[in-house]
Write a structure and sequence with these properties.
It contains ten helices and five strands; from the N terminus they run E-H-E-H-E-H-E-H-E-H-H-H-H-H-H. It has helices at residues 11-23, 34-43, 58-67, 88-97, 109-119, 133-141, 155-178, 181-198, 201-215, 219-252; strands spanning 3-7, 27-31, 48-52, 79-83, 101-104. Strand 1, helix 1 (11-23) and strand 2 form a beta-alpha-beta unit. The protein is globular.
Length: 253
């Protein structure tokens, strides 16, 4: 069964989450401290981490995961916040820390199943995960470049960020050819920050994977990721230009 790690101290919340996930065909495991969270992440292969924002400082846990401070932990593992409030400031903090989304407490079954289906690569194998037609449509049509609740910056700012991303990729290519892992990691971090700023989740995760590959001296992996990031950046540019044309057309009407 796909494994999901729940990092929380709230026993009532844990009981509900474990019951819902287990009935849906997932293996739900619990960590009640930051140390236990990282210990389990090192030992297990999880498709998703649900982390409480306040009782366990989920923001700091996520930052450590994404930065690679948690040695032996996959920096790209999906992380979703568990929180009792979702103000705009909270959403932005979650995104800046590297989270992939958030769930409001008390937990709603439909919302939980939607998140699990989205982030679990094996979610479609379990018929017990039954979503409403509305929820299925939301998953099918949701932009893959956005964290839920995050608003894109202005169009011109996005284009400028994409142009800077292209320049970083050119420098990355030179660093990879030279085998300079220090520069590869520096450029990867710069690209990760740009992706964070514009809500480009896939590009951000690719940058994190590149950083991880650089630390492991995985040259073939880095070259493959460079190609993937070039493709993703081009897709983002095209998407942004198309959106701008649509806006201009609407203004003319």
């Amino acid at each position: 069964f796909p494994r999901i790690l729940i990092a929380d101290k709230d026993q009532d919340s844990l009981e509900v989450l474990v019951e819902l996930l287990t009935k849906a065909g997932y293996s739900a495991e619990v960590a009640e401290s930051s140390e236990e969270t990282f210990d389990k992440l090192r030992k297990g292969n999880y498709c998703l981490v649900l982390v409480e924002l306040r009782t366990l400082d989920g923001l700091e846990i996520t930052r450590k995961i994404r930065s690679g401070e948690g040695e032996g932990v996959d920096p790209c593992v999906p992380v979703v916040a568990l929180t009792t409030r979702v103000f705009e400031e909270d959403r932005k903090k979650c995104f800046e820390a590297g989270m992939n989304g958030h769930l409001l407490k008390p937990i709603d079954k439909e919302a939980l199943m939607e998140v699990v289906a989205r982030f679990s690569s094996n979610g479609d194998r379990f018929p017990s995960v039954v979503l409403s037609t509305e929820s299925q449509e939301r998953i099918a049509h949701r932009p893959t470049v956005l964290t839920p609740g995050y608003d894109f910056p202005a169009h011109d700012q996005r284009l400028e960020s994409y142009q800077e991303g292209g320049r970083i990729l050119a420098r990355l290519q030179l660093a990879i050819k030279a085998g300079n892992r220090v520069m590869i990691e520096q450029h990867g971090q710069a690209l990760r920050r740009i992706a964070n700023a514009v809500g480009a989740i896939q590009l951000r995760d690719q940058a994190l994977a590149l950083i991880s590959a650089a630390r492991k001296a995985n040259m073939p992996g880095m070259e493959q990721l460079l190609c993937s990031m070039n493709d993703e950046l081009e897709r983002l540019r095209s998407q942004s230009l198309t959106a701008n044309l649509d806006i201009d057309d609407e203004k003319k009407i």
